[in-house]
């Protein structure tokens, strides 16, 4: 795992966009795994800028998103469908039919979830998966305790996660209680992983990402087993980690 440190979120986001650009230039038909939440917002802004400058072409790119709330329609302003439209898709030349969001299944229909994994496999897997991390170590919506062998599935959101996401809703009560998410195994199958960690509130999560034992109690710890993970973190997120592991030239190879 390579951890790169940046002075601020803006610098981190420029680097994140460079890595995604490299991937698309290397293979214009790249399959990207995309995340929502605050962490990738700067990345998406930079990708839009690169597209507007003519430096990026999304016409053959395919995307698969990590997760989606259950209990919200696709048109709900806080659905991740809408998030992706508003923060990326509507501004670039990606084909709507090449963008894929997990769909909340009809009651108890696990087959609908597994179809998402199947579709990813039929597209030769994810080349580059963008991730954020929750304060409790969740990736996608895989809460602590999720099996490392999980595929796309429906989850009950933890109170901590609902509280963290309540900032996007009028009230805490409005935050959905369930979501559909790529599983840990789905995420681990991506060829490369790009994890964005920003802000003081993520210091402990970054520290545990590195020092926790690989355990389902801290889902992101599984990334220690992935062969190609790049973590981009800003100084406000690295502070705790740095007390134990000094960076050399803003880099730390674990
Ligand atoms: C949310 C999302 C995750 C995201 C994480 C961190 O619950 N489902 O995909 O990575 O929490 O969010 P943020 O980047 O807003 O801190």
What keywords describe this structure?
11 strands, 18% strand, eight-stranded mixed sheet, 254 residues, three-stranded antiparallel sheet, single chain, alpha/beta, 32% helix
Structure commentary:
The protein is of the alpha/beta class and 254 residues long. It contains 8 helices and 11 strands. The chain has helices spanning 9-26, 41-52, 80-87, 110-122, 159-165, 184-188, 203-211, 235-244; strands at residues 2-6, 31-34, 62-65, 67-69, 99-100, 128-131, 153-156, 178-181, 192-197, 229-234, 251-253. It has an 8-stranded mixed beta sheet. It has a 3-stranded antiparallel beta sheet with strand order 4-8-7. Helix 1 packs across helix 2 (41-52) and helix 7 (203-211) crosses helix 8. The radius of gyration is 17 Å and the shape is globular. The chain starts with a strand and ends with a strand. Bound molecules: 2-amino-2-deoxy-6-O-phosphono-alpha-D-glucopyranose. 2-amino-2-deoxy-6-O-phosphono-alpha-D-glucopyranose is lined by residues 35-39, 66-67, 132-134, 140-141, 161, 165.
